[in-house]
């Protein structure tokens, strides 16, 4: 059995009956007074991020439990120019069974239904993913709004959202106009995000801030707060295409904005780091950040996602080492 007699800090697997989303963020009116006075100390943020992952460690069965939880929070993604229906189908099969049956049995979890958090694709691939995942309860997420640059005209970006939703996407990963942040035009950013939120309808909106393009942590905090006020259900670090993607000081700044927004509005917003994460250790570091800063509820897939498909292979290798004492070759854990 993977779990020791004393339960780990977080559950190994969410209950199968749980919905992928617990609530929606209705947003608020634009309130610059909530964020314009806030300063972010870069060296302090870097120091806090660095010490977070050294102050708490998880070993043996506890580490295995955390890694299984990480799997349930992964948005398994393919965003390549040569995507095909076949590739998306294979990815969805992996999403439904991320761990080999024999490994799951060796971990004592053979009775558990373990899946990833969602499958994320381009809008034209949504119908293929919806077909492959029908009846599984795994959401299909779609990037939209001129991903990754987001510089197409707003009517076209909104039309792309509606196309993905009509095709069956339950989550939409939108990108903001970075210029609005760099010029401090909060009204334009808010209005853009509200229009996107309306276009999403019942689909959950994940707002990609592309933090590597925003220049300062103060801008990251302010953009995060505006996205929350505009009704984003998740805020996400990166498209994965920027020079700098998900790093812990940026994540710390964004989750502090989520915490402040909840204190001021009473509403919950999720968080998704994306890009640049490849190892099981990366997954553990982000889970530690979430638990320390926001609490155990933010280590569940309805409030936390990992945008890092390549991470899954290393997590499988670490779990196999825990179960058997041996490391397997990487090619034995191919994604698709």
TrEMBL record:
The protein's Enzyme Commission number: 4.1.2.4
Annotated metabolic or biological route of this protein: Carbohydrate degradation; 2-deoxy-D-ribose 1-phosphate degradation; D-glyceraldehyde 3-phosphate and acetaldehyde from 2-deoxy-alpha-D-ribose 1-phosphate: step 2/2
Reactions it catalyzes: 2-deoxy-D-ribose 5-phosphate = D-glyceraldehyde 3-phosphate + acetaldehyde
Pfam name, any one: DeoC
A GO molecular function held by the record: deoxyribose-phosphate aldolase activity
Region of interest (Disordered), residue spans: 1-23
Keywords, comma-separated and alphabetical: Lyase, Schiff base
Family under the similarity heading: Belongs to the DeoC/FbaB aldolase family. DeoC type 2 subfamily.
UniProt protein name: Deoxyribose-phosphate aldolase
């Amino acid at each position: 059995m993977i779990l020791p007699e004393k339960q780990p800090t977080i559950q190994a697997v969410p209950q199968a009956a749980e919905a992928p989303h617990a609530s929606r963020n209705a947003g608020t009116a634009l309130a610059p007074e909530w964020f314009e006075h806030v300063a972010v100390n870069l060296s302090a943020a870097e120091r806090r991020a660095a010490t977070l992952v050294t102050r708490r460690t998880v070993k043996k069965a506890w580490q295995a439990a955390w890694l299984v939880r990480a799997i349930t929070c992964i948005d398994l993604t393919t965003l390549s120019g040569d995507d095909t229906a076949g590739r998306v189908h294979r990815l969805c099969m992996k999403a439904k069974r991320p761990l080999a049956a024999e490994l799951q049995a060796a971990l004592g979890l053979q009775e558990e239904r373990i899946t990833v958090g969602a499958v994320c694709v381009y809008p034209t691939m949504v119908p293929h993913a919806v077909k492959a995942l029908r009846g599984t309860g795994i959401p299909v997420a779609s990037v939209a709004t001129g991903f990754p640059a987001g510089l197409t005209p707003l009517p076209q970006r909104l039309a792309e959202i509606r196309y993905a939703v009509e095709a069956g996407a339950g989550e939409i990963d939108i990108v903001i106009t970075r210029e609005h942040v760099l010029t401090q035009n909060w009204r334009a950013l808010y209005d853009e995000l509200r229009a996107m939120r309306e276009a999403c309808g019942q689909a959950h909106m994940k707002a990609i801030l592309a933090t590597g393009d925003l220049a300062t942590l103060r801008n990251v905090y302010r953009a995060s707060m505006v996205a929350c006020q505009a009704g984003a259900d998740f805020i996400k670090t990166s498209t994965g295409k920027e020079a700098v993607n998900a790093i812990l000081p940026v994540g710390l700044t964004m989750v502090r904005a989520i915490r402040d927004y909840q204190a001021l509005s009473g509403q919950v917003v999720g968080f998704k780091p994306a890009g640049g994460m490849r190892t099981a250790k990366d997954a553990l570091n982000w889970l530690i950040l979430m638990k320390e800063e926001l609490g155990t509820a933010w280590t569940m897939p309805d409030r936390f996602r990992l945008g890092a498909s390549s991470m899954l292979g290393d997590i499988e290798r670490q779990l196999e080492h825990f179960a058997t004492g041996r490391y397997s070759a990487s090619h034995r854990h191919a994604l698709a």
